[in-house]
Amino acid sequence: MAVDRERVLTEAAALLARRATTSMDEIARAAGISRATLHRHFAGRDTLIRALEEHGIERFAQAMDAARLDDGDAAAALRRLVREAEPVAGVLAFLFTENELFESGPVNAGWARLDARLAALFRRGQEEGDFRVDLSTAWLTEAFYGLLGAGAWAAHEGRVARNDLNHSIAELLLGGIRRSMEK
Fold it and tell me: Model pTM?
């Protein structure tokens, strides 16, 4: 039987985003495969987490592409990005909090590319005079990730309606980074 790697990663991400201590047995069951099969494809939890990292990076890069970050003004691009990133928000929320990813070795180059693209969007908004210049693009990037992850968790837990998620994230972020036009 061929293993659908995408399904395994999707199920693992969904479970781990809800409960970081999910076992390999639980992941295998959710993916409809045996634990032995899961271990043949992912030698252990670390291997699975690293595969999830690559999967999350790829999916978020696709969301960035779909959001057309260079089109229109920066605020509109940011709103599109929030909308496009929502399906991968749970995976990203798990990855952002997974300390194992950052404890050993260099940061994955994929994260650096994503961070650079996001920082460029914020920098453009600053240069256009729409976003605050007293907040660094690095901080705005981290704030974006944090709000996206918190929103995914809140929606999962039923504290926020999923239909309100995109609006809530975009408007809170933009309300905080928008430059005040008061004199």
Answer: 0.82
